[in-house]
TrEMBL record:
The lineage of its organism: Bacteria, Pseudomonadati, Pseudomonadota, Alphaproteobacteria, Rhodospirillales. CDD domains: ABC_Mj1267_LivG_branched. This is ABC transporter ATP-binding protein. Gene3D superfamilies: P-loop containing nucleotide triphosphate hydrolases (3.40.50.300). One of its GO terms (biological process) is L-alanine transport. One of its GO terms (cellular component) is plasma membrane. GO terms for molecular function: ATP binding; ATP hydrolysis activity; L-isoleucine transmembrane transporter activity; L-phenylalanine transmembrane transporter activity; L-valine transmembrane transporter activity.
Length: 259
């Protein structure tokens, strides 16, 4: 059997390793031989115009789509064929472009349900006591995303920006080791984007994340490394300053689709 590449064989050093991941939809290659490594605690931005393969990349990492070929490891474990819930149990979390919230419940109730969903109590039919550890955990998460003043509001009555903040709180439930943020700044006002940057940069250092974002200003402010995708492949990788100054990246963004 052919030996794995040295960097990939040392997968235990990384939070996430993708090796030659391809995802086909019929004859269309949405991802083509993508190899990517993310260290524990690393904050990485994934940039690219529409159709670059960013969301398909996330779907393969989370298990929403299985790759057509290639291998995915999460903290050294091969999770390529794992369903999404098994990846969640191992500490992987994700937000989506379209909000997946309980609109008729309060902020606090949404976060408490998220905490309960990744706990041992997730199958219990008994309500939590007021002094339940999950109640306390939910309160801390609400505070962490700057929603304490809105914790008793019905989610349907929140602004779009507040709903985005709530999604981050729910992704932080349990003990996440890596979070995938799918365009969290979409539709936010300038003030809300500033708040988003503050929230993401203040996350505990042990929690790594990958952020897909069309707003380069937000992405480059919260990330320590950047991957640029184009046509389902990795186009460039580097530090935020390198990517921002790269003429080919600038040409790709100015010449590609807006959005």
């Amino acid at each position: 059997m052919q030996a794995e590449p040295e960097a990939f064989a040392r997968g235990l050093e990384n939070a996430l390793d993708l090796e030659m991941v391809t995802r086909m939809f019929g004859a269309l290659a949405a991802l083509s031989n993508v190899s990517l490594s993310v260290r524990p605690g690393e904050r990485r931005a994934v940039l690219g115009s529409n159709g670059a393969g960013k969301t398909t990349l996330f779907n393969c990492i989370t298990g929403d789509f299985l790759p057509t070929s290639g291998t995915i490891r999460f903290f050294g474990e091969d999770v390529t064929e794992f369903p999404p819930q098994e990846r969640v149990r191992r500490g992987l979390r994700r937000t989506y472009q379209t909000s997946l919230l309980f609109k008729k419940l309060t902020v606090r109730e949404n976060v408490h349900l998220a905490c309960r969903g990744v706990s041992r109590q997730r199958f219990s039919f008994f309500p939590s006591r007021r002094d339940d550890v999950l109640i306390a955990a939910a309160e801390k998460l609400v505070e962490a995303v700057h929603l304490t003043s809105a914790k008793d509001k019905i989610v349907a009555d929140l602004s779009h920006g507040q709903q985005r903040q709530l999604e981050i709180a729910m992704a932080l439930a349990g003990a996440p080791r890596l979070i995938l943020f799918d365009e969290p700044a979409a539709g936010l006002s300038p003030a809300e984007r500033q708040d988003l940057v503050a929230i993401l940069t203040s996350l505990p250092a042990h929690i790594g994340f990958i952020i897909i974002e069309h707003d380069m200003d937000v992405a480059l402010r919260v990330a320590e490394s950047v991957t640029v995708m184009h046509d389902g492949r990795i186009f460039k990788e580097g530090a935020p300053r390198e990517i921002e100054a790269d003429e080919e990246v600038q040409e790709l963004y100015l010449g590609g689709e807006d959005g």
